[in-house]
Design goal:
Number of domains: 2
Number of helices: 10
Structural class: alpha/beta
CATH class of the largest domain: Mainly Alpha
CATH architecture of the largest domain: Up-down Bundle
């Protein structure tokens, strides 16, 4: 899987520019705040329909303009694909091979992407929401049914939470079981898919982490909450858990357990990374998770995803830079940095210098 070219019009600080990418490593380099990360962001947006940097699409539009355009052509194992997104103040239009799509689910899986930046340390250091986001974005690209279940689960959860705020307790306790049956239908899909993903992720992340650290520390990944193994058992376990928490949920005014509250357990050397991990340990663990994610995409989709590494080299020591380069050999990679001569170590790459939202040739 590789992206051949990328077109940006009125996107972030770009007026209009076209990028041509090669199969291997593509280095976007230049001074800070010139547009390197904006280009990487645009590629991931076309993969997933979401920005890794903002939840507000209107922030992607260049200052003073009414809309932005992103487009690319790519080659996958199934043939060529063209994807474009026109972003307006209050809406967007996404097209695949010229045909407009109405659901984000239809975008997922056309071009798979894995994104890493220094901000991904939040996945290790911050609260459960960041780790759920990692799981949701990754699994959704691999499974449209997961994404659909996630959307429907969140809609039903919103209605359940609204009910919990009702002061008519008789109505609340009478109606909750109805919502719970619907909620468990989609919750079981989410949990079972996450369990399968984590089962693949754990040994791969441990292996990548051992390579990056020369085996100095062990990385362990697991789901923090277990509801069961197969979907039926998970559904029954969740149904009981929801029922057992009725009084607590009514008191709090929201649903206190379920996939929307679950966490990923990450240990380094047997200690919880979020609490005890240093900045360097968190960075290495996050990178190991992303490299493991890349391998899961290859195993599941039959080809490597596009790997986006935004400003990762400046945060790694010389040894880990070199090890990272051995791990991305043969994978189309977009790598942003400030100085190419400091990170490439003699590799033949496609260098693209960016200054002020323009390619300098």
């Amino acid at each position: 899987m590789r992206i051949k070219n990328l077109v940006l019009k009125n996107f972030r600080n770009y007026a209009e520019e076209t990028f041509a990418f090669t199969e291997g490593i593509n280095v976007l380099y230049g001074k800070n705040a010139q547009g390197k990360t904006n280009c990487a962001e645009a590629v991931f947006y076309l993969c997933t329909g979401v920005s890794p940097r903002t939840s507000r699409d209107r922030q992607l539009i260049r200052t003073g303009e009414e809309s932005a355009h992103i487009g690319c052509t790519a080659q996958t194992r199934y043939g060529g694909v063209t994807i474009s997104a026109d972003i307006f103040e209050t809406r967007r239009e996404i097209r695949i091979n010229g045909g407009k799509i109405t659901r984000n689910a239809d975008l997922l899986g056309n071009i798979n992407g894995v994104y890493f930046s220094p901000g991904e340390l939040r996945m290790i250091q911050d609260g459960p929401e960041e780790r759920r986001r990692f799981l949701n974005v990754s699994i959704s690209q691999l499974s449209k049914s997961y994404y659909t279940a996630l959307v429907r689960y969140n809609k039903i959860l919103e209605q359940r939470n609204a009910l919990l705020k009702n002061r008519d307790l008789g109505l609340v306790f009478e109606t909750l079981p109805v919502w719970d049956v619907q909620l468990c239908k989609y919750a079981a899909e989410l949990v079972s898919r996450r369990n399968a993903f984590i089962a693949k992720l754990s040994p791969l992340a441990e292996q990548k982490h051992a390579l990056l650290t020369d085996g100095a520390e062990r990385l362990e990944i697991d789901a923090e909450t277990r509801y069961g193994d197969d979907p039926q058992e998970i559904s029954e376990g969740l149904l009981k858990a929801f029922s057992d928490n009725y009084e607590k949920d009514v008191r709090l005014g929201y649903t206190s357990i379920g996939p929307h509250r679950d966490d990923l357990k990450i240990l380094i050397g047997g200690r919880e990374a979020r609490v005890f991990g240093s900045q360097g340990q968190a960075r290495t663990a996050a990178l190991a998770l992303k490299l493991a994610e890349v391998e899961i995409f290859r195993q599941t989709a039959g080809e490597y995803p596009v790997l986006i590494l935004d400003d990762v080299m400046s945060e790694l020591d010389l040894s880990r830079r070199r090890k990272l380069l051995t791990q991305i050999d043969g994978i189309q990679t977009l790598l942003t940095c400030t100085h190419t001569e400091k990170v490439l170590f003699g590799k033949s790459v496609n260098k693209i210098r960016i200054s002020g939202g323009k390619i300098k040739r």
